[in-house]
Write a structure and sequence with these properties.
mainly beta, N-terminal domain of TfIIb, 2 domains, 4-stranded antiparallel beta sheet, 3-stranded antiparallel beta sheet, 2 helices, binds zinc ion
Length: 103
């Protein structure tokens, strides 16, 4: 976790994370969750919300990386640049885990 104003590495101090350079601090609660995020979950920032699951197609050959269930809702999203490939997004039918497939 880095200081939002001066980008120094925050140090834990009691129940806070404190910036040694500018004195910025924030409660450790909340930041712990952010620190624990995996790269995969970071990627999900731009995963679109899966709505209308009843009408979404299910790919029965996809393995959920989280729970091992086979079968996931999917849909395609065209990226802004025509040079980039279409990204396919999945959502597990069992545990609701969402992920993206890089073409
Ligand atoms: Zn700072
Ligand atoms: Zn799953």
């Amino acid at each position: 976790m880095f200081c939002p104003s001066c980008k120094s590495l925050l140090r834990p101090d009691g129940e806070n994370l404190v910036c040694p350079r500018c004195g910025f601090d924030k409660p450790i609660d909340g930041s712990v969750e952010a620190l624990g995020r995996t790269t995969l979950e970071e990627d999900l920032k731009d995963v679109p919300v899966f709505e209308d699951l009843d009408t979404m197609p299910i790919d029965e050959s996809v393995l959920c990386p989280k729970c091992g269930n086979i079968g996931a809702y999917w849909h395609l999203r065209q990226t802004r640049s025509a040079d980039e490939p279409t990204t396919r997004f999945y959502r597990c039918t069992k545990c609701k885990h969402s992920w993206r497939e890089y073409a």
